[in-house]
Specification:
Strand content: 15-25%
Helix content: 40-55%
Number of helices: 15
CATH topology of the largest domain: Nucleotidyltransferase, domain 5
Order of helices and strands: HHHHEEEEEHEEEEHEHEEEHHHHEHEHHH
Number of domains: 3
CATH architecture of the largest domain: 2-Layer Sandwich
Bound molecules: zinc ion
CATH class of the largest domain: Alpha Beta
Largest sheet: 5 strands, mixed
Shape: globular
Low-confidence stretches: 1-8
Radius of gyration: 22 Å
CATH superfamily of the largest domain: ATPase, nucleotide binding domain
Length: 406
Amino acid sequence: MFAESAVVGSVGDIGRVNAATVVRSLLRDGPIARTEVAERTGLTRATVTRATAKLIDMGIVVEGEPIRSFGRPMIPIDVRAEDRVVVSIHVGVTLTRIGLVDVRGRILQERKRLHVTTEPAGLVDDVCQVAREMLAEHAPDAEVIGVGASIGGWVDTESGVVVRYTPLGWSDVPLVTMIAERLHLPVLFDHMVRGMALSEMMFGSARDVGDFLQIYVGDVLGAASVDAGIIRRGPRGAAGSIDHLPVSGESTRTCSCGRRHCAQWLVTDRAVRDDAVALGLAGAGVTMDDLVASDDDGVLGLLDERARLLGEAVGLLIDFENPSLLLLAGPQTRRPGFLEAFRSGLSVRSDHGGDLDLPVRIAGFGDSTPTPASAALCLDAYYRDPIGYLTALRAPTVPPQEASTG
Ligand SMILES: [Zn+2]
């Protein structure tokens, strides 16, 4: 895949390694002066100056307006963001989000497209057509860095295949190849929750934290475990499923595993919506946004109960992982009473979740969380080796779609 084609390793690539260090420093702290980059990275001033010249030449870094203080004017440098765009695609249960995100992770445009079909080729055709329209309309002059694509379920990052995504009935769908063939761009692909963990490390709540546990609860449920800045994927990318964690409630549905106590049929948005309707608390077609905004005691009781059950399930993971930080994201987590109910569940089923005073943060980027999460998959590859990435992207002899799918 594209990211692996741009691996930095040999002695001759040391300039690229240094350049990547400079760019990541700017991503974090820019705009700052070259001297400050040297101080923060430990590189010599000469190395920073040399790397910056190459980075400016390639359009990865820009100089800002000189700032006059005492003595000589200081010229700040920063990552070039305004005309560098990533296409973000997140395939959800009922709709696909298509976004244009700049290289600072800021959403420039976002569209939600209801699935016109659940058949993979038809769905990807439609989504890619929308992406092309958005690029033509909103970023006609931008350099498109690539595509970050994500979905829930079981995702094999290495082969670019959706192994299984039950809500759409997909199995063994080569999503990366399908998107690359249509958009002629490198496609970086992973489970949405792992993209979310990456976006939190690059742009969000986990910038200072090397190990944390990311949990997402929406129409799907998922976890990403990060240790020393590395996200665990495991063989064929199957890590992170927490669908069958047992909780103390009983669902009206029997899970595919034959039980009725599995987290996925009690705490996901789908399950909560269905149960709200079944209990007469809401009408058919109610959305999670409607439920979260409700002040009805019955609805609030249901949401509190499900937040508590999620806390129980996550408590089991906390005892196993002992993370430094727990990040929670998803529509339900934005409700004012959510965290208190969640913590009460956590204390029931975790031996040390309560004792260690574990920091728990509601993370994500609101309703748009899947968009920067998907874009982060591409941006992670870009920032690991920006010179190598852009050299491969711009190479006239190797079309990027071959580099991405080969
Ligand atoms: Zn189950």
